[in-house]
Amino acid sequence: MSEPALSCGNCRQPMQRLALPGHYGRRVELDLCPRCHLVWFDQTETARLTGVGLLELIGAMAGTQSLPHETLHDTARCPRCSAGLKTVHNRSRWGSSLQLECRNRHGAFQSFAQFLQEKGLLRPMSRVDRARLVEQRGHVDCVNCGGAIGRDDEECRFCRSVPALLDVARLARALDPEGVLEPQAVHGATAERTAMQCAACGAALPPQQSLACAQCGATLAISRLAQAHDSVAALGPALRAHAHKPAPEVIKRRLDALDADLPRRRELAAQWQAEAQEARHGRSFDWEQWATWWPFDTNPLRAVLIALAIWFIWWFW
């Protein structure tokens, strides 16, 4: 039975409890604040999310961006113990990211944009990107809260997020890390979007290019989280079917990877076993060092010690 939803440490309102698909058929529970556009992670829930779970989480994020944004206050607290929060700078293969961590290590808050940045799904918005989006829509959508960013705004007026674009092609790969859905449905999406650089392969695009990259066919990056979710939502049924019953070639690929890693796992297991035995029994007895105290030739000191030992045993027996 899942625990009740927590209250947000920023706006003090109940957060939305999400039970998302995780690896090995387990459910991963997260708490999301629709007003503050924050997600609370107790431990390492993001690493345990499957592609379907990540897709559902992004859908839940997109669904909250129609609500007014609640500014993040300096008095924000941990929703579990009400302790203060500290800013933590994390490093990943995609670069740096931020989170607000409980000082008692109960978990951490991340904004939607910070979560997407940590996953490597955002890229900075260039001046050309902004000019094209402003020309089409009159404004730029904030990928974090969904608010409108003006032509000259350096950050979102509502949540202070830096304008960024969501890499739809990379999102599709994150949902399908094993590459079982080929070709990717997102490559053939027809939703309107524009950018001057392909977010998938980095190829330069002419000003008239839109919808898809001429080099690799990938859908271009966009700034609206709901539009990005709609572009990859078509992958959901196939991902669920794959999670329920993986294809034979995928199972073979997994087994081959395990076989290749088996020697390292055996070596590691032997090392752990040796360390456990040493901790259980202590250090092995050094007979060579003990023999130096008891040589086989005649020694008066040895005779006295043996006599004292015999007397001690006889007296206290």
Compile the SSE list and pairings.
Layout: E1 16-21, E2 27-33, E3 38-41, H1 51-64, E4 85-92, E5 95-102, E6 108-111, H2 112-118, E7 122-124, H3 127-137, E8 140-141, E9 148-149, E10 164-166, H4 168-175, H5 225-232, H6 236-244, H7 248-281, H8 287-291, H9 300-316
Antiparallel strand pairs: 1-2, 2-3, 3-6, 4-5, 5-6, 7-10, 8-9
Helix pairs in contact: 1-5
Explain what this protein looks like in three dimensions.
With 317 residues, the chain is of the alpha+beta class. The chain has one domain (16-244). 36% of the residues lie in helices and 15% in strands. The protein is built from nine helices and ten strands. The chain has helices spanning 51-64, 112-118, 127-137, 168-175, 225-232, 236-244, 248-281, 287-291, 300-316; strands spanning 16-21, 27-33, 38-41, 85-92, 95-102, 108-111, 122-124, 140-141, 148-149, 164-166. The strands form three sheets. The protein has a six-stranded antiparallel beta sheet, with helices on one face. A hairpin with a 2-residue loop joins strand 4 and strand 5 (95-102). Helix 1 packs antiparallel against helix 5 (225-232). The longest helix has 34 residues, at 248-281. The termini are far apart.
